[in-house]
Amino acid sequence: DALPYPWTMVRSRTVDTGSEEPTSWHIPLNLFSVLRKLNPDVVVVCGYAKLAAIGSAAWAHIHSRGVVLWSASIILHRGGPLVPVKRALVRSAQAYVVPGDRAADYLQLLGAKRSKISIAPHCIDLSLFDTHNAGARRPRRLVVCGRLTRQKNVGAVLSAIHLAGLTREMTLTVVGTGPLEAQLRAMAASLGVRAVFTGHVPYGSVSDVFREADALVFPTLDDPWGLVLNEAAACGLPIIASNLAGGTPALVKDGVNGWVVDPTPAALAAALLRLYALTPIEWMMFSEQSRTLAESQSVDRAVTGFVEAIRYAHRCAKHTDIGQRYT
Questions:
Q1: In angstroms, rounded to a whole number, what is the distance separating the alpha carbons of residues 24 and 17?
Q2: Global pTM value
């Protein structure tokens, strides 16, 4: 209600599928009546296999309106019936918005032209995450943050601490809940890893957890971005990050503010040993670089990317409309 512009929420029905990581399918009930009333010049659609996105793009095409496709997907997960749908939605758009280069590469695989892709990084309110005058320190306290599921791969971090021989030297704070929590607690105990499971932490308190840590480990097996990278970098944490996350290239630079690794126990263990070897002064240099990289993923930069794409799509739609009227 505090938004400084009028807005309308489309009524929808939600159907959940899946067990470990449920997927919610939203069925829009009054999408076309809302679009008729708003009569937008440009629609921005998010995602591929969403009925609201497909319906909005179809409406815009019929009425010669601009379409901007906003996508964060970074790999072609599978073939099958969704690929033609994705390609059709890509063809329907005049411009595209992505958070980073990996998402741009994926759109190009689906047929988008690179010149029509704008970058609008996933961003956070940096004022909520700061270094809080952290002093130089030796890295001993690790944090991992996310749903405790197979995809988040927290078990690999526990194994890596054990493989690196750092069970006495390092502690691990695990932020989050999920179906694998009991299994991960048992694994930590069996490996002798000093792990603290915090459970759910309110968003406003996450920065407090990060300020008590010396480094973030982000071992995901599949993540379009990973906003925890933004948050940890904004708090000045060195980061060990999976090379399978879309946000890693933008927020982690090898040997500068952390390390990019395959999310395997062996690769994570090697990175942990490099982290452990940092002197307090080197840790401070990594911390400063993390904050600089976080600031590069700003709200202003994201806004600029969206405005660029929307204006381009609007110009294209106007030219198309004029051409149709005179043919």
A1: 6
A2: 0.87
